[in-house]
């Protein structure tokens, strides 16, 4: 509700202290103004603003009308808020951004919170991105979260997660099962075997 009120208030011709030149060069002024307001609001509440700018520019490059761009950016703003709430006040920008993508891919906040609980003292952006990638490949959220959680519990590093992504790509190209590739790497880590 408060977000809607802020957007309505933005129509008063208010000037922003720092305009993002990319918005104002590529979007109609009323649309740029509303996106700028959202970006400024993100900065004020310590959320990453760059994903909002990029979402607006992506919409413009695809020829989306202004109202759809504003709606999409506002939805991303809410996802960023929800991701930070799930990941805790200590979450860094890359984690919040990855968490928002998790939510936008169909994931839920409780599973994000569960990943934080599984690894409270490490940076989770790469791990969350890996889980999101699994969901975009058709995995259920439960399966994606469970695989990511098992990797975290097995003390997988960011490098391990990136290697896993490569193994999944190789499996898909060879006509194999992404799930088999994930389970193989999970077993390797849980057995304390050599990391790839």
Tell me about this structure.
With 196 residues, the chain is mainly alpha-helical. The protein is 71% helix and 0% strand. The chain contains 11 helices and no strands. Helix 5 runs parallel beside helix 7, helix 9 (141-153) packs parallel to helix 11 (178-190) and helix 10 (158-173) packs antiparallel against helix 11 (178-190). The longest helix is centred in the middle third of the chain and has 22 residues, at 66-87. It is elongated. The termini are far apart. Residues 1-16 have low confidence and may be disordered.
Oligomeric form: single chain
Identify low-pLDDT runs.
Answer: 1-16
How many strands, which pairing sense, and closed or not: the largest β-sheet?
none
* Count of separate DSSP helical elements: 11
Distance between the termini: 49 Å
Briefly, what is this?
This protein is 71% helix and 0% strand.
Question: Could you outline the blueprint of secondary structure elements for this entry?
Answer:
Blueprint: H1 2-9, H2 21-26, H3 29-44, H4 50-61, H5 66-87, H6 93-104, H7 109-118, H8 125-136, H9 141-153, H10 158-173, H11 178-190
Task: Using brief descriptors, characterize the structure shown.
single chain, 196 residues, mainly alpha, 11 helices, 71% helix, elongated, disordered N terminus
